[in-house]
Write a structure and sequence with these properties.
Layout (H helix, E strand, L loop, with lengths): L35 H20 L4 H21 L7 E5 L9 H15 L3 E4 L5 H9 L4 E6 L17 E4 L2 H10 L3 E4 L4 H16 L7 E4 L6 H14 L13 E3 L2 H10 L4 E7 L2 E6 L5 H10 L4 E9 L16 E6 L4 H11 L5
Parallel strand pairs: 1-2, 1-5, 2-3, 3-4, 5-6, 6-7
Antiparallel strand pairs: 8-9, 9-11, 10-11
Helix pairs in contact: 3-4, 3-8
Amino acid sequence: MTREKHSKEAHPPSGAKASPTASTGRDDQAPVRATPRRLAGLIDKIKESADRLASDQATRGDLKILSRTLRELRYAFKVFTPYRMVRKVTVFGSARTSKEHPCYRQAVDFGRRMAACDWLVVTGAASGIMEAGHEGAGRERSMGLNILLPFEQEANPIIAGDSKLVHMKYFFTRKLMFVKETNGICLLPGGFGTLDEGLEVLTLLQTGKRDPAPVVLLDEPGGTYWQGFDEFVRAQLLGSGMIDAHDLSLYRITDRVDEAVDETTGFYTVYHSMRYVRAQLVMRLLAPPSAALLRRIRREYADIVAEGTFSVSGPLPEEKDEPDLADLPRLTFCFDRRNCGRLRELIDLLNGRRG
């Protein structure tokens, strides 16, 4: 049960700064202003798919999964919709981390500093690192996606009973919300669940199934957890040719909270968001690149362009459904949709964070 009837209506926290289209910028994620006709058409497609289940001879078990999935996502979307204009960071880590552990203190400090930057902190809402992130951010700037397990996983006291807490049965719906609704990801040491979440995020970034976002692997001071992970990735995955060297640009490792915060917030120094308009990738920026920088981009990043070159422009006609972004300059090009590590490096260059 999503416990909708036990929750109050969600409203953005007081004082929250609304960043224009702070979502990931993809058509299915940005809070675009769809016309009633377009919305009605999509709802009709959902109904049509449901009607076909009878002729498909779907089993009762299949129908229960579909019904629960739709209800969970519908309610989760309802909870997150008021906060789509506020940037969020998802914090992953072990539920077993004690409050005395250095990683717990790192997560508290990270949550506190991100909240001070007017970001919301989203976690799995349980104990350990999840509670630490919420402890640092405070109840007003915390959101939670709790998983219902055979052994009860209670929500931590910071987020318990809050209107910004969603209870979910399925891991796949929960992970979808973690990734869809976030603008940055911070992982602290954890078990299978943390690694699963982190590797799924990296897979989605590597394959372009979600828009670029900062991923920080934050360790305890002097810790070696993520160093060991990075050594495995380089020796086994990169060494065997299973990933590209540029894929290593998709994450950053640090044991300093200030660096983790800077990596997360700095990703949006100039880069704002992106979307595709037919074959064109349209990057919305807070400032246009200089003529010299545009020449450098055209020279050094020609390998990720399928045809043509990079151009600076205003909004394209197809972007009229996002009037809040009309004033932002654009960098447009035909991205090959393969070299997502290189795309991340391009964003770093635009942000002035690459030599």
